[in-house]
Known about the structure:
Layout (H helix, E strand, L loop, with lengths): L7 H7 L12 E2 L15 H14 L3 E5 L5 H12 L5 E7 L2 H10 L3 E7 L2 H8 L3 H17 L3 E7 L6 H13 L4 E6 L6 H15 L4 E5 L6 H11 L3 E4 L13 H11 L11 H12 L16 E2 L2 H9 L17 E2 L7 H9 L7 H17 L3 H14 L6 H10 L8
Parallel strand pairs: 1-2, 1-8, 2-3, 3-4, 4-5, 5-6, 6-7, 7-8, 9-10
Helix pairs in contact: 2-3, 2-11, 4-6, 6-7, 8-9, 9-10, 12-13
Bound molecules: manganese (II) ion.
Amino acid sequence: MTERPLVEDYHEHTSSERHFAEPIVFWDETLRDGEQMPGVHFSPEEKLRIAELLSEIGVSVINAGIPVVSEEEARAVRRLVEAGLKAKVLAAARTVPADVDAVIRSGATHLAVFIAASEVHLRYKLAMSQEQVLAAAVAAVTRGKEAGLHVAFVTEDTVRAPLDFVERLYRAVLDAGADRVVVSDTVGIMTPLTFRWFLKEFQRRVQPKDWSVHCHNDFGLAVANTLAALEVGVTSPHTCVNGLGERAGNAAFEEVAMALESLYGLKTGLDTSRLYEVSRLVEDLAGVPIAPNKALVGYNSFSHEAGIHTHGILKHTLTYEPIQPEKVGRRRQMILGKHTGRAAVVEKLKERRAVADDPLLQALLHEIKSRTEAGGKDRLVKLLQEYRALFERPGLSDEEFWKMVAKLGIATESS
Ligand code: MN
Protein backbone atom coordinates (compact mmCIF):
# COMPACT_ATOMS: atom_id res chain seq x y z
CA MET A 1 0.00 0.00 0.00
CA THR A 2 1.29 3.41 -0.90
CA GLU A 3 2.11 5.93 1.80
CA ARG A 4 2.53 8.67 -0.77
CA PRO A 5 0.15 11.63 -0.79
CA LEU A 6 -2.85 10.55 -2.80
CA VAL A 7 -2.44 13.16 -5.51
CA GLU A 8 1.31 13.53 -5.40
CA ASP A 9 1.68 14.55 -9.04
CA TYR A 10 -0.68 17.47 -8.61
CA HIS A 11 1.01 18.44 -5.36
CA GLU A 12 4.30 18.83 -7.19
CA HIS A 13 2.71 21.48 -9.39
CA THR A 14 1.33 23.39 -6.41
CA SER A 15 4.01 22.91 -3.76
CA SER A 16 5.31 26.49 -4.03
CA GLU A 17 1.87 27.65 -2.80
CA ARG A 18 2.01 25.67 0.42
CA HIS A 19 3.89 26.60 3.57
CA PHE A 20 2.82 24.18 6.29
CA ALA A 21 4.01 24.92 9.80
CA GLU A 22 6.13 22.30 11.51
CA PRO A 23 4.76 20.96 13.76
CA ILE A 24 1.04 21.58 13.37
CA VAL A 25 -0.47 22.10 16.83
CA PHE A 26 -3.94 20.61 17.10
CA TRP A 27 -6.20 22.70 19.35
CA ASP A 28 -9.36 20.87 20.29
CA GLU A 29 -12.62 22.79 20.82
CA THR A 30 -14.96 19.81 21.34
CA LEU A 31 -15.39 20.49 25.05
CA ARG A 32 -16.02 24.24 24.60
CA ASP A 33 -17.49 25.16 21.19
CA GLY A 34 -18.68 21.57 20.72
CA GLU A 35 -20.49 21.69 24.03
CA GLN A 36 -22.14 24.97 23.03
CA MET A 37 -24.08 23.03 20.41
CA PRO A 38 -27.78 23.18 21.31
CA GLY A 39 -28.76 20.35 23.65
CA VAL A 40 -25.18 19.18 24.30
CA HIS A 41 -23.82 18.99 27.84
CA PHE A 42 -20.77 17.14 29.12
CA SER A 43 -20.27 16.40 32.83
CA PRO A 44 -16.75 16.94 34.22
CA GLU A 45 -16.22 13.16 34.13
CA GLU A 46 -17.31 13.01 30.49
CA LYS A 47 -15.03 15.90 29.57
CA LEU A 48 -12.18 14.03 31.21
CA ARG A 49 -12.86 10.83 29.24
CA ILE A 50 -12.86 12.72 25.95
CA ALA A 51 -9.79 14.76 26.90
CA GLU A 52 -7.82 11.67 27.95
CA LEU A 53 -8.47 9.98 24.63
CA LEU A 54 -7.68 13.12 22.60
CA SER A 55 -4.47 13.54 24.58
CA GLU A 56 -3.49 9.91 23.91
CA ILE A 57 -4.19 10.42 20.21
CA GLY A 58 -1.76 13.34 20.25
CA VAL A 59 -3.87 16.50 20.37
CA SER A 60 -1.67 19.26 21.82
CA VAL A 61 -4.11 21.74 23.34
CA ILE A 62 -7.55 21.03 24.79
CA ASN A 63 -9.96 23.84 25.52
CA ALA A 64 -11.70 22.53 28.62
CA GLY A 65 -14.30 25.29 28.83
CA ILE A 66 -15.05 28.68 30.35
CA PRO A 67 -14.68 28.38 34.16
CA VAL A 68 -16.78 31.46 34.91
CA VAL A 69 -19.83 29.83 33.29
CA SER A 70 -20.69 27.64 36.30
CA GLU A 71 -19.26 25.80 39.28
CA GLU A 72 -19.48 22.55 37.35
CA GLU A 73 -17.60 24.03 34.40
CA ALA A 74 -14.83 25.24 36.74
CA ARG A 75 -14.75 21.76 38.30
CA ALA A 76 -14.40 20.21 34.83
CA VAL A 77 -11.39 22.39 34.05
CA ARG A 78 -9.78 21.45 37.37
CA ARG A 79 -10.48 17.74 36.71
CA LEU A 80 -8.57 17.96 33.43
CA VAL A 81 -5.72 19.89 35.04
CA GLU A 82 -5.41 17.35 37.87
CA ALA A 83 -5.44 14.42 35.44
CA GLY A 84 -1.92 15.37 34.34
CA LEU A 85 -2.64 14.93 30.65
CA LYS A 86 0.10 15.14 28.07
CA ALA A 87 -2.02 17.74 26.24
CA LYS A 88 -2.01 21.30 27.54
CA VAL A 89 -5.24 22.22 29.30
CA LEU A 90 -6.62 25.55 28.15
CA ALA A 91 -9.52 27.50 29.61
CA ALA A 92 -11.29 30.45 28.04
CA ALA A 93 -12.33 33.86 29.30
CA ARG A 94 -13.96 37.00 28.05
CA THR A 95 -11.68 40.02 28.36
CA VAL A 96 -13.20 40.61 31.78
CA PRO A 97 -11.01 40.47 34.93
CA ALA A 98 -13.37 38.07 36.75
CA ASP A 99 -13.28 35.66 33.79
CA VAL A 100 -9.50 35.71 33.59
CA ASP A 101 -9.22 35.24 37.35
CA ALA A 102 -11.49 32.18 37.14
CA VAL A 103 -9.08 30.66 34.61
CA ILE A 104 -6.10 31.48 36.84
CA ARG A 105 -7.86 29.77 39.78
CA SER A 106 -8.67 26.71 37.64
CA GLY A 107 -5.00 25.79 37.39
CA ALA A 108 -5.07 25.68 33.55
CA THR A 109 -1.68 26.58 32.11
CA HIS A 110 -3.19 28.00 28.93
CA LEU A 111 -5.63 30.88 28.67
CA ALA A 112 -7.63 32.04 25.66
CA VAL A 113 -9.13 35.50 26.02
CA PHE A 114 -11.74 36.49 23.52
CA ILE A 115 -13.63 39.57 22.42
CA ALA A 116 -15.45 40.46 19.22
CA ALA A 117 -13.81 42.58 16.54
CA SER A 118 -16.36 43.37 13.82
CA GLU A 119 -18.47 46.51 13.61
CA VAL A 120 -21.72 44.60 13.91
CA HIS A 121 -20.55 42.93 17.13
CA LEU A 122 -19.09 46.12 18.60
CA ARG A 123 -22.16 48.22 17.90
CA TYR A 124 -25.00 45.80 18.60
CA LYS A 125 -23.61 43.22 21.01
CA LEU A 126 -20.84 44.83 23.02
CA ALA A 127 -21.81 48.51 22.71
CA MET A 128 -18.10 49.26 22.84
CA SER A 129 -15.83 51.47 20.74
CA GLN A 130 -12.73 50.09 19.05
CA GLU A 131 -10.62 51.90 21.67
CA GLN A 132 -12.52 50.23 24.50
CA VAL A 133 -12.13 46.81 22.89
CA LEU A 134 -8.43 47.37 22.43
CA ALA A 135 -7.97 48.48 26.03
CA ALA A 136 -9.95 45.51 27.39
CA ALA A 137 -7.97 43.10 25.21
CA VAL A 138 -4.58 44.42 26.29
CA ALA A 139 -5.63 44.45 29.95
CA ALA A 140 -6.85 40.83 29.82
CA VAL A 141 -3.74 39.59 28.02
CA THR A 142 -1.55 41.45 30.53
CA ARG A 143 -3.50 39.96 33.46
CA GLY A 144 -2.98 36.45 32.08
CA LYS A 145 0.71 36.99 31.38
CA GLU A 146 1.30 38.42 34.86
CA ALA A 147 -0.18 35.19 36.27
CA GLY A 148 2.38 33.24 34.24
CA LEU A 149 -0.07 31.72 31.75
CA HIS A 150 0.40 30.92 28.09
CA VAL A 151 -2.03 33.40 26.56
CA ALA A 152 -3.88 33.12 23.27
CA PHE A 153 -5.82 36.12 22.06
CA VAL A 154 -8.99 35.43 20.08
CA THR A 155 -11.35 37.74 18.29
CA GLU A 156 -14.78 36.63 17.26
CA ASP A 157 -15.77 37.58 13.73
CA THR A 158 -12.22 38.61 12.80
CA VAL A 159 -12.83 38.26 9.08
CA ARG A 160 -15.68 40.80 9.05
CA ALA A 161 -13.76 43.39 11.09
CA PRO A 162 -12.03 46.38 9.46
CA LEU A 163 -8.50 45.23 8.61
CA ASP A 164 -6.89 48.37 9.98
CA PHE A 165 -8.52 47.73 13.34
CA VAL A 166 -7.55 44.06 13.23
CA GLU A 167 -3.95 45.09 12.63
CA ARG A 168 -3.92 47.63 15.49
CA LEU A 169 -5.64 45.27 17.92
CA TYR A 170 -3.46 42.22 17.25
CA ARG A 171 -0.25 44.23 17.28
CA ALA A 172 -1.28 45.66 20.63
CA VAL A 173 -1.94 42.26 22.22
CA LEU A 174 1.31 40.85 20.83
CA ASP A 175 3.13 43.82 22.35
CA ALA A 176 1.35 42.99 25.62
CA GLY A 177 2.86 39.50 25.46
CA ALA A 178 0.20 37.31 23.83
CA ASP A 179 1.80 33.98 22.90
CA ARG A 180 -0.64 32.97 20.19
CA VAL A 181 -3.30 34.82 18.19
CA VAL A 182 -6.49 33.38 16.77
CA VAL A 183 -8.40 34.47 13.68
CA SER A 184 -12.07 33.45 13.60
CA ASP A 185 -14.53 32.97 10.80
CA THR A 186 -17.34 33.00 13.33
CA VAL A 187 -20.26 32.78 10.89
CA GLY A 188 -18.51 30.61 8.32
CA ILE A 189 -18.52 33.03 5.39
CA MET A 190 -15.01 32.52 4.07
CA THR A 191 -14.11 30.49 1.01
CA PRO A 192 -10.66 28.89 0.71
CA LEU A 193 -9.43 31.63 -1.63
CA THR A 194 -10.83 34.62 0.28
CA PHE A 195 -9.57 33.18 3.56
CA ARG A 196 -6.15 32.65 2.05
CA TRP A 197 -6.09 36.30 0.95
CA PHE A 198 -7.26 37.48 4.38
CA LEU A 199 -4.65 35.43 6.23
CA LYS A 200 -1.80 36.57 4.00
CA GLU A 201 -2.86 40.17 4.58
CA PHE A 202 -3.08 39.45 8.33
CA GLN A 203 0.37 37.87 8.25
CA ARG A 204 1.86 40.83 6.39
CA ARG A 205 0.38 43.35 8.80
CA VAL A 206 0.63 41.52 12.15
CA GLN A 207 3.53 39.09 11.59
CA PRO A 208 2.33 36.46 14.05
CA LYS A 209 4.72 33.66 14.95
CA ASP A 210 2.15 31.33 16.42
CA TRP A 211 -1.36 31.67 15.05
CA SER A 212 -4.61 29.75 14.92
CA VAL A 213 -7.79 29.70 12.92
CA HIS A 214 -11.30 28.99 14.17
CA CYS A 215 -13.59 28.10 11.28
CA HIS A 216 -17.34 27.52 11.33
CA ASN A 217 -19.23 25.33 8.93
CA ASP A 218 -22.27 27.41 8.02
CA PHE A 219 -21.64 26.86 4.31
CA GLY A 220 -19.96 23.47 4.70
CA LEU A 221 -16.50 24.99 4.20
CA ALA A 222 -14.96 24.79 7.68
CA VAL A 223 -12.53 22.00 6.82
CA ALA A 224 -11.65 23.46 3.40
CA ASN A 225 -11.02 26.88 4.94
CA THR A 226 -8.95 25.37 7.75
CA LEU A 227 -6.78 23.56 5.21
CA ALA A 228 -6.41 26.77 3.20
CA ALA A 229 -5.18 28.43 6.39
CA LEU A 230 -2.70 25.66 7.11
CA GLU A 231 -1.35 25.97 3.56
CA VAL A 232 -0.59 29.62 4.32
CA GLY A 233 1.39 28.60 7.41
CA VAL A 234 -1.10 28.89 10.26
CA THR A 235 0.31 26.81 13.10
CA SER A 236 -2.74 25.68 15.01
CA PRO A 237 -6.15 24.64 13.67
CA HIS A 238 -9.17 24.67 15.97
CA THR A 239 -11.14 21.49 15.47
CA CYS A 240 -14.04 19.58 17.02
CA VAL A 241 -14.51 15.82 16.94
CA ASN A 242 -17.36 14.96 14.53
CA GLY A 243 -17.51 18.65 13.54
CA LEU A 244 -19.57 19.53 16.62
CA GLY A 245 -20.11 23.18 17.52
CA GLU A 246 -22.47 26.11 17.33
CA ARG A 247 -25.04 25.92 14.49
CA ALA A 248 -23.47 23.91 11.65
CA GLY A 249 -20.42 23.25 13.80
CA ASN A 250 -16.66 23.67 13.51
CA ALA A 251 -13.99 22.09 11.35
CA ALA A 252 -14.08 18.32 11.99
CA PHE A 253 -10.96 17.04 13.75
CA GLU A 254 -10.87 13.71 11.92
CA GLU A 255 -11.28 15.35 8.51
CA VAL A 256 -8.54 17.95 9.01
CA ALA A 257 -6.21 15.32 10.46
CA MET A 258 -6.72 12.83 7.65
CA ALA A 259 -6.54 15.46 4.90
CA LEU A 260 -3.12 16.43 6.25
CA GLU A 261 -1.97 12.83 6.57
CA SER A 262 -3.40 11.31 3.43
CA LEU A 263 -3.91 14.14 0.93
CA TYR A 264 -0.76 16.10 1.71
CA GLY A 265 1.32 13.24 3.08
CA LEU A 266 2.25 15.15 6.25
CA LYS A 267 3.15 13.51 9.54
CA THR A 268 0.79 15.02 12.10
CA GLY A 269 2.07 12.89 14.97
CA LEU A 270 -1.53 11.86 15.67
CA ASP A 271 -2.49 8.23 16.24
CA THR A 272 -5.08 8.26 13.46
CA SER A 273 -5.99 4.62 14.12
CA ARG A 274 -8.01 5.86 17.11
CA LEU A 275 -10.04 8.49 15.22
CA TYR A 276 -13.06 6.21 14.95
CA GLU A 277 -12.87 5.43 18.67
CA VAL A 278 -12.92 9.11 19.66
CA SER A 279 -15.68 9.81 17.15
CA ARG A 280 -17.86 7.10 18.72
CA LEU A 281 -17.08 8.27 22.26
CA VAL A 282 -18.06 11.86 21.44
CA GLU A 283 -21.15 10.67 19.58
CA ASP A 284 -22.23 8.75 22.70
CA LEU A 285 -21.43 11.45 25.23
CA ALA A 286 -22.73 14.39 23.19
CA GLY A 287 -25.80 12.43 22.13
CA VAL A 288 -25.48 13.81 18.62
CA PRO A 289 -25.64 11.03 16.02
CA ILE A 290 -23.32 11.44 13.08
CA ALA A 291 -24.68 11.10 9.55
CA PRO A 292 -24.17 7.70 7.86
CA ASN A 293 -22.40 9.49 5.00
CA LYS A 294 -20.15 11.58 7.29
CA ALA A 295 -16.58 11.63 5.97
CA LEU A 296 -14.27 8.97 7.46
CA VAL A 297 -16.32 8.14 10.56
CA GLY A 298 -19.83 7.75 9.09
CA TYR A 299 -21.18 4.19 8.91
CA ASN A 300 -20.99 4.18 5.11
CA SER A 301 -17.50 5.59 4.70
CA PHE A 302 -16.01 2.15 4.07
CA SER A 303 -19.12 0.19 3.09
CA HIS A 304 -19.87 -1.16 -0.37
CA GLU A 305 -23.03 -2.59 -1.80
CA ALA A 306 -23.21 -1.79 -5.52
CA GLY A 307 -22.06 -4.72 -7.69
CA ILE A 308 -19.54 -2.77 -9.74
CA HIS A 309 -18.00 -1.24 -6.60
CA THR A 310 -17.73 -4.46 -4.61
CA HIS A 311 -16.25 -6.21 -7.63
CA GLY A 312 -13.61 -3.47 -7.91
CA ILE A 313 -12.87 -3.48 -4.17
CA LEU A 314 -12.41 -7.25 -4.15
CA LYS A 315 -9.83 -6.92 -6.96
CA HIS A 316 -8.03 -3.96 -5.39
CA THR A 317 -9.27 -1.69 -2.60
CA LEU A 318 -7.78 1.43 -4.20
CA THR A 319 -10.43 1.21 -6.93
CA TYR A 320 -13.13 2.66 -4.71
CA GLU A 321 -11.43 3.61 -1.44
CA PRO A 322 -8.93 6.47 -1.09
CA ILE A 323 -7.34 5.01 2.06
CA GLN A 324 -7.34 1.78 4.03
CA PRO A 325 -10.13 1.85 6.67
CA GLU A 326 -7.66 0.60 9.32
CA LYS A 327 -5.86 3.93 9.04
CA VAL A 328 -8.74 5.54 10.97
CA GLY A 329 -9.47 2.46 13.07
CA ARG A 330 -12.23 1.03 10.93
CA ARG A 331 -13.04 -2.06 8.89
CA ARG A 332 -14.43 -2.46 5.43
CA GLN A 333 -17.98 -3.76 5.11
CA MET A 334 -19.63 -5.48 2.19
CA ILE A 335 -23.36 -4.90 2.32
CA LEU A 336 -25.72 -7.45 0.83
CA GLY A 337 -28.75 -5.79 -0.75
CA LYS A 338 -30.61 -4.70 -3.84
CA HIS A 339 -27.44 -3.63 -5.65
CA THR A 340 -25.33 -6.68 -4.78
CA GLY A 341 -23.51 -8.48 -7.60
CA ARG A 342 -22.06 -11.96 -8.11
CA ALA A 343 -18.55 -11.19 -6.91
CA ALA A 344 -19.72 -10.14 -3.45
CA VAL A 345 -21.80 -13.29 -3.05
CA VAL A 346 -18.95 -15.56 -4.17
CA GLU A 347 -16.70 -13.83 -1.65
CA LYS A 348 -19.27 -14.09 1.13
CA LEU A 349 -19.70 -17.82 0.50
CA LYS A 350 -15.96 -18.30 0.97
CA GLU A 351 -16.38 -17.38 4.65
CA ARG A 352 -17.81 -20.89 5.08
CA ARG A 353 -15.80 -22.50 2.31
CA ALA A 354 -18.91 -22.74 0.13
CA VAL A 355 -19.02 -22.61 -3.64
CA ALA A 356 -22.09 -22.47 -5.85
CA ASP A 357 -22.54 -23.11 -9.56
CA ASP A 358 -24.02 -20.48 -11.78
CA PRO A 359 -27.72 -21.34 -11.51
CA LEU A 360 -27.44 -21.51 -7.71
CA LEU A 361 -25.60 -18.20 -7.60
CA GLN A 362 -28.33 -16.61 -9.71
CA ALA A 363 -30.98 -18.01 -7.41
CA LEU A 364 -29.17 -16.69 -4.35
CA LEU A 365 -28.77 -13.26 -5.90
CA HIS A 366 -32.46 -13.24 -6.75
CA GLU A 367 -33.33 -14.10 -3.14
CA ILE A 368 -31.11 -11.33 -1.77
CA LYS A 369 -32.53 -8.68 -4.09
CA SER A 370 -36.17 -9.59 -3.63
CA ARG A 371 -35.75 -9.78 0.13
CA THR A 372 -34.27 -6.25 0.19
CA GLU A 373 -36.89 -4.85 -2.15
CA ALA A 374 -39.72 -6.37 -0.13
CA GLY A 375 -38.26 -5.03 3.12
CA GLY A 376 -40.53 -2.45 4.73
CA LYS A 377 -39.24 0.86 6.06
CA ASP A 378 -41.48 0.90 9.12
CA ARG A 379 -38.67 0.65 11.66
CA LEU A 380 -36.66 3.35 9.96
CA VAL A 381 -39.62 5.72 9.71
CA LYS A 382 -40.41 5.22 13.40
CA LEU A 383 -36.79 5.86 14.32
CA LEU A 384 -36.67 9.02 12.19
CA GLN A 385 -39.83 10.34 13.81
CA GLU A 386 -38.32 9.91 17.27
CA TYR A 387 -35.06 11.44 16.07
CA ARG A 388 -36.87 14.51 14.73
CA ALA A 389 -38.85 14.95 17.92
CA LEU A 390 -35.55 15.05 19.81
CA PHE A 391 -33.48 17.16 17.47
CA GLU A 392 -35.86 19.67 15.95
CA ARG A 393 -36.24 21.25 19.36
CA PRO A 394 -33.57 20.13 21.86
CA GLY A 395 -33.40 21.51 25.37
CA LEU A 396 -36.33 22.21 27.68
CA SER A 397 -39.82 21.91 26.29
CA ASP A 398 -42.13 24.94 26.52
CA GLU A 399 -44.25 22.96 28.96
CA GLU A 400 -41.28 22.40 31.30
CA PHE A 401 -40.25 26.05 31.04
CA TRP A 402 -43.69 27.48 31.92
CA LYS A 403 -43.99 25.00 34.80
CA MET A 404 -40.73 26.38 36.24
CA VAL A 405 -42.00 29.93 35.79
CA ALA A 406 -45.23 29.10 37.62
CA LYS A 407 -43.39 27.26 40.40
CA LEU A 408 -41.27 30.35 41.09
CA GLY A 409 -44.44 32.47 41.23
CA ILE A 410 -43.62 34.67 38.23
CA ALA A 411 -46.89 36.18 37.03
CA THR A 412 -47.77 35.63 33.38
CA GLU A 413 -50.67 36.72 31.22
CA SER A 414 -52.66 33.61 30.42
CA SER A 415 -53.33 33.30 26.74
MN1 MN B 1 -16.97 29.17 17.62
